[in-house]
Amino acid sequence: MNYPETKLPKVGTTIFTQMSQMAAEYQAINLSQGFPDFDGPRALLDAVGHYIRQGANQYAPMTGVPALREQIAGKVATLYGRKVCADQEITVTSGATGALFAAISSVVRKGDEVIIFDPAYDSYEPAIELNGGVAVRLQLLPPNFQVDWMQVKAAISSKTRMIIINTPHNPTGAILSAADLDQLAGIVEGTDILLLADEVYEHIVFEGEHQSLLSHDVLYPRSFVVSSFGKTYHTTGWKIGYCVAPASLSVEFRKVHQYLTFSTATPMQLALADIMRDEPQHYLQLPTFYKAKRDLFCSLIKGSSFQFTPAKGTYFQLVDYSAISDLPDTEFCLWLIKEAGVAAIPVSVFCETPPSMRLVRFCFAKGDDTLRSAAERLVHL
What we know:
Elements: H1 15-25, E1 29-30, H2 42-53, H3 66-80, E2 90-93, H4 96-107, E3 113-118, H5 124-130, E4 134-139, H6 149-155, E5 160-166, H7 178-188, E6 194-198, E7 223-228, H8 229-232, E8 241-244, H9 247-260, H10 266-278, H11 281-284, H12 286-300, E9 316-320, H13 329-340, E10 342-343, E11 345-346, E12 359-363, H14 368-378
Parallel strand pairs: 1-10, 3-4, 3-5, 5-6, 6-7
Antiparallel strand pairs: 2-8, 7-8, 9-12, 11-12
Helix pairs in contact: 2-10, 3-10, 4-5, 4-9, 12-14
């Protein structure tokens, strides 16, 4: 039989899966895929067991457990000064990636253009293309990976449906400033352009405060804002995220969400509601926690041949390896696994046109001993 033509001709197995598999094969230290090698808070883990034993094992409401949505609303009000309705503006999802897909699918139609910024997280473009849209890829400006707002303004057309921003930014660790949000507001004001904000690293900012679209009066009314409990509570395997959006956008978002996963694991949602209520210091202390890991990793590889500027946010560190090798970054990552026993992610996989710098990404969301062992191997290259 003749099978149908692929809907995603540019997509294969993700580089994250490939590098993690190779890391296991070669027994390399895995600093590639973005997940911690330590557990979340003990109180959170214990609470999940408690709710399982109490029988909270059936479907949660499609929009999320009410107690969790109320806690999210409280956090949004406290941190970003935005009063949102837990019933109408907050939707709990099976992972932030699910939320990103639902947001794109709910508003992007055939022929619509969506502006994304390279290096771009790899789930954006496939979601755009599956919905008949066209990704318009703009390059962030190295070496600090800032947005060129004049370029954004020039890229706007009558077909522009959405702009996707990611702050703190994966893979570069760059963050948007309040001035950046004002620039964005000036561009979209008076248009029908919608915004999708990938803010999954909202609590991992090392310089100043996270600038959320939730806090901006011009931007929020046209925004889907996505976050991740996996990133915040070191539980990436749970795949629980959420989207905050104005009621009119949430209605459309939920139309898609209900046919993706419908609902998300009930006992985990109840446990997350408890820890948000009882231990808000966890996410408030997260910048200090991860800054210590960033500083440790950077200090350990300072004597290496890698060149870098410490990341401003996320738990990723970009390094330039041009003093070590002339290999393209994907080939260098393969060499690094085989010869040094450390796994990284090549930055070119996030780009349509890779930057001229030779860059790879390391994840420092690891135990201190893991970081020391990895750095010991890297400094000898």
